[in-house]
Specification:
By secondary structure, this protein is an all-alpha fold. The chain contains eight helices and no strands. The two termini are 37 Å apart.
Length: 153
C-alpha cells in the first residue's frame, strides 16, 4: 500500500521554513531521553508518517549493509523509486550524517534486529500469485538458521 503525506499547496518562504525546522530539530535534540523522543514522535506523527519515516530509515540501513534494491523492495514492500531516492540521499548526505550512520551501523546489533524482522515476516501469508511451497522452504531454512545462531550465542 502506498501512502502520501499531505503537503499544503501554500508554500512557506524558504528562510521561514528553515527557521521553523531548526526550532523543531532543536526541540527534539533537547528531549530528556530516547523514551521521551519516542513518546513525542508517537504523539506527533500520524500512523502514515510513522510508516513512511520508518521505511525510509530501514531502506537506509539495508543499503548501508549492502542489500540489493530488489531485496529491500521485497522485504519492506516499497517501490524502486523509494529505494533509489534513499540511495541518492545517502550518496549526497553531509559528512556529519555519514559519520552518525557509520556509528549506528557499528554499534547496533543488527543480527538480532533482523532475526526479529524475519520472525514477523514468517508470520505473514505469502502474497497473491506467490509460490507457497518455495516460500515455505525458505521460511523453514530461516527458522533453522535462527535456532542454530541462538544456540551458538
Amino acid at each position: 500500500e502506498h501512502f502520501m503525506t499531505q503537503v499544503s499547496k501554500h508554500q512557506l518562504q524558504p528562510e521561514m521554513g528553515d527557521l521553523i525546522y531548526k526550532e523543531f530539530s532543536s526541540f527534539v535534540a533537547k528531549m530528556p531521553s530516547s523514551d521521551a523522543i519516542d513518546h513525542f514522535f508517537n504523539d506527533f506523527l500520524t500512523p502514515t508518517e510513522k510508516i513512511m519515516f520508518s521505511k525510509r530509515f530501514m531502506i537506509m540501513v539495508l543499503l548501508m549493509r549492502g542489500h540489493s534494491a530488489l531485496h529491500i523492495k521485497n522485504t519492506l514492500f516499497v517501490s524502486n523509486s523509494a529505494v533509489m531516492g534513499v540511495s541518492s540521499w545517502l550518496k549526497n548526505a553531509s559528512e556529519s550524517t555519514k559519520l552518525g550512520l557509520e556509528k549506528l551501523n557499528k554499534e547496533k546489533n543488527w543480527g538480532t534486529f533482523f532475526d526479529n524482522i524475519d520472525v514477523i515476516l514468517d508470520k505473514l501469508p505469502p502474497g497473491k500469485y506467490r509460490d507457497w511451497h518455495r516460500l515455505a522452504k525458505k521460511k523453514a531454512l530461516r527458522n533453522k538458521a535462527r535456532i542454530i545462531k541462538n544456540k551458538l550465542k
